[in-house]
Amino acid sequence: MATSVNVHGEDKVVVDMTKLVPSLPLETRCPPFPLRQYGGFWLPEGILPALEAIHTRFETRPSDVFRASFPKSGTTWLKALAFATINRDEHPPSDEHHLLCHRGPHDCVKFFEPTVAATGSLDDFAALPSPRLLSTHHVPYSLLPEHITSDDSGCRIVYVCRDPKDVLVSGWLFSRKIMDNSAAEAKGGNLDHQPPYTMDQALELFCKGRCITGPDWRHVVEYWEESERRPNNKVLFLRYEEMIREPARNVRKLAEFVGRPFSSEEETAGVVDAIVELCSFDHLRSLEVNKIGVLNLGATFGNDFFFRKGVAGDWRNHMSTEMAAMLDGVVEDELRGSGFTFDGVGDSTLTVSNVNAGN
Ligand code: A3P
User: Fold this and answer.
1) Tens digits of residue pLDDT in 52-86
2) Alpha carbon of residue 271 to chain centroid
3) How many A from CA of 117 to the centre of ligand 1?
4) CATH hierarchy code of domain 26-351
5) With b meaning 16 or more CB within 10 Å and e meaning fewer, what string describes 137-154?
6) What pTM, to 2 d.p., does this model score?
């Protein structure tokens, strides 16, 4: 099947994904997925056919809101916040039986391309009532179709970025959990022969951009550039560390951006704080639905894997200062001239207790 993909605003490239995928550069050292390099990014091989479906068959609606992020940057949190904010009339956030208390964030807002890749169908998303909240996990801005990115489409995108060092650490520990989980399943709980996946290995791959959806900085900068180019219009660009520091302010920004600002009555009734509390790390992690069960997206993820520590700056517990300097140096070089910086997002949110509190 052929598809047309507009890469980096250049002429449309027409490709047949099924034929193309086996010919793309392959990276197999970054668990749990084999990655293929496409459009300058290392994408999970399994989702590439979904990219084609999104370009050729997906019908957008002007009221659509797309949530996007580089993996391990706050996807789960932003899904919960956006879902609670957009659907607050039907699901009041102070309701102790709120949908998010019974269905996890990834069930309330499904991953778009892994679901399309797994089912081969867009029906789940076509059936959603408007306004739809959709979540892309892997697609960089330059690989989104024009029917999402154009001014005419009316669709909006909410993006969250995070300090790459915390992204690396969070992703590394997440991958190890998945590996342990699948090894335990395969060997009846015996992890003795599990091959190691060390921080050194993860760092090397991350610095080369050879990680899931990498390079991280390029994914971030593409969405940031769009947010700068069309302020308050197409892309709302959020930072995980600022959300930790000022969650209510960021929820207000989100609500305004999606065209649902809080009324003075809602402000007085404490709706913003109720959303923040409903979606807080401690609350979501404490819910039974987020402690048990699994998500199958080409690999098996325990729902609890998505709630580890939820702070800024935990990289210090897993990376040496040399490792951090190496990654910071790569990111600085790669971002030079872009106008974007991750600087100043991390340290002010740290407290001794939250950084040192175990794994
Ligand atoms: P850590 O591994 O550093 O704890 P993603 O959702 O993109 O996979 O990102 C996962 C990271 O977000 C994990 O970071 C996880 O603990 C954190 N996280 C999950 N829910 C959160 C919440 N409600 N508030 C803050 N951080 C959250």
Assistant:
1) 889 989 999 999 999 999 999 999 999 999 999 99
2) 25
3) 24
4) 3.40.50.300
5) bbbbbbbbbeebbeeebe
6) 0.92
